TrEMBL record:
Name of protein: Aldose 1-epimerase
Keyword Calcium tagged: yes
Family (UniProt): Belongs to the aldose epimerase family.
Top class in the EC scheme: isomerase
InterPro entries: Aldose_1-epimerase, Aldose_1/G6P_1-epimerase, Gal_mutarotase_sf_dom, Galactose_mutarotase-like, GH-type_carb-bd
Amino acid sequence: MKASDVFKLKNKNGVEVIFIARGGQITGIKVPNNKGEIADVVIGYETTEGALAGDAYFGALCGRYANRIVNGQFELNGEKYQLDINNGPNHLHGGSDGFNLRTWEVEEVQLPQFAQSYKLTLVSPDGDQNYPGELTTLVTYGLTEDNEFVIEYDAVSTKDTIINLTSHAYFNLEGAGTGTVAEHELLINADKFTPIDGEIGTVTGEIAEVKDTAMDFTTAKSIGETLSADCPQVKLVDGIDHNFVINGYDGSLKLAARLEHKAAGRTMEVYTDQPGVQIYTGSHFDSSEKGKLGAPIEKWAGVALETQIFPDSPNKEHFPDAILKAEEHYKHICVYKFL
């Protein structure tokens, strides 16, 4: 298997999901609008070579622990672990050699619920990036005839460990390279979020109400309304880079968010069985790279909706449990449904 190997899922409605073996990286999702016009709705690069040379988080599978762990430190079974520091003072997305940079084994499989599907497999050795246990991860990418792109995760470790896997595609429903997501309307099924602290560089452990704040997306509103808000949380990251606490979490599949661009005629719903969704509006994009349609990848060019356990959960007892016991299975389902 080569990092540059390309795979494609298609259904009868003209929806296509394109990905490569390196990081299981989704390099394109082509979706029709309500007039049947097709656009690629994930930002990134025009070519596989561009994807391999560019931002390796675009559309990739992130782990072993997606999002941030404060100071890269956690304790498990009385033993202290020090992980790679690769994001300010913190550990991010599994470290500087995370799952997004690994070449996954990819195999097409026939599953009755999908028009097309692939299984992606990665074995991470004991001690990889200083995580305990050999972790075997199996991810299924499936596309249904109802325009649902389904990501199913299954992982098992030889030792107790911590885990948090996610997919890091940035969406622009008008089409990649057409501008920012400011005019997209976003609804998040979350009455609470986890505020961040500038000095810590991530969550404090507080779980706060979104009501009467710029983080209130319980009713759909434009992302631009929050991007321009006079709000300390927004100013800290020049946009949104926050974890939202999905209402009524019980391990079953629930609506996490709905993204819509009315003028483009496209809507996407996100479902998950995880307790949180990280919304990130790509404030670090600075137009220095060319993306699809030859357009610069500008600030707020796309929005990531990453279903997951909360950031720094291993160090916050009141956050959802991120421990995976030896020989038990970590399961996670995320569905991106295009309407």
